[in-house]
Amino acid sequence: MGAPPRGEQGDARGGGQERPQASPSESTPVAPSPAELRDVNEQLLIAGLREQELAAALEVERAQLAVILAGIGDAVLVVDGTGATVRTNAAYERMVSGAGLFLAPEDARGRPLPSDETPWARAARGETFSLEFTLTAADGSRHWFEANGQPLPDQGAGRAVVVIRDITLSSQHRRLQDEFLSLASHELRTPLTSIQGYLDLLLLRAHRASDDERLVRYATQALGQVKRLAALVRDLTDVARLQSGKLTLDRVPLDLVPLVARVVETARDLPPGHTIGLAAGATPLWVHGDAGRLEQVLFNLLTNAITHAPSKTPIDVRIRRVGGDSALDVQDHGPGIAADQLPHLFSRFYQVAHADRPSQGGLGLGLFICQELVAAHGGRIAVVSTEGEGATFTVWLPLRDTEGG
């Protein structure tokens, strides 16, 4: 007979029962080799060394940050999302403790700031801001501060840094300066008006007599200088009113195109040497503005271009619509303005200096007044300039849909 099947043969030998098979999970574990143990130990050692290096580097950075904060003269504090103080520097502690200041911020008139408008509250909300406020000391004196806040990039931790600078002295100087400007402009206007009136009469009689050319020339020169001085006083008066918020505008619907044309025509009658071109379409450009003040802005820009550009170079004026705004350009082809002077151009009493012409006279108030008047109309002013290629000043004003709209 043939051999029995393999399974049957096993049953005959084992009494008819199957032998159990061992499962993989019940297999005997294999011990790691010495080489594998050495590799694991080396990896753990390397990881430990890296953690030590990172901890040491972090400690160095913390020490450097502490030194930096201690060396900063301005008060620095870090707040979390609830407005609670997380970290401060020595200057902040001196401001609070040494000066005996009560941390109850007030506005310029001494009124407490709303709780949600304090520097700490705004920083907690993640705002980027800059504001001025005052604090009262234990002796009753008021101190002025400027706070600048910005959120920290700390991966959602919600922290922000606030830098507080004591500007008490600069604020006092600024207020004294404003008071002087207001007083000087007021006290100078009356005598200048009288002098100009007498010179007008003197010049009129000199022309009638027509027998003394020197008298006519002297009176004309004196009248010109008085008018120049009156213009400077008018600038001082405007600055004082702008700073105090007392400058009022008589705003009505007006078309900028004929207004610009009138001012350009007036500027063409100034001392010859420049050709002033005007590019304006026939479409009206209606704005809500004070005609006299807008004429003052454009005339200041034109006289500024005439003053700084060489004679016989053209000055281009353009008025056009750009989206919902009117855009007024005044472009000269003079020496241009250095890049480092552009940020200061609209500051009070700032004058652009050139190596060949260090001073152009005046008080350096014209562009500041232009910026403030344009802002009061809801517009903006900017300048683009490259040295050697001239400068272009652009005034944007929001347009109205129609004359009465």
Order of helices and strands: HHEEHHEEEHHEHEEHEEHEE
Distance from N terminus to C terminus (CA atoms, Å) equals 119 Å
- Rg is 39 Å
DSSP, total strands: 12
User: What share of residues are in beta strands?
Assistant: 15-25%
Query: Which stretches are low in confidence, meaning pLDDT under 50 for 5 or more residues running?
Result: 1-17
The major β-sheet equals:
5 strands, antiparallel
CATH architecture of the largest domain: 2-Layer Sandwich
Count of runs of 4 or more consecutive helical residues: 9
Mean pLDDT: 80
Structural class: alpha+beta
According to CATH, what is the topology of the largest domain? Heat Shock Protein 90
The oligomerization state is: single chain
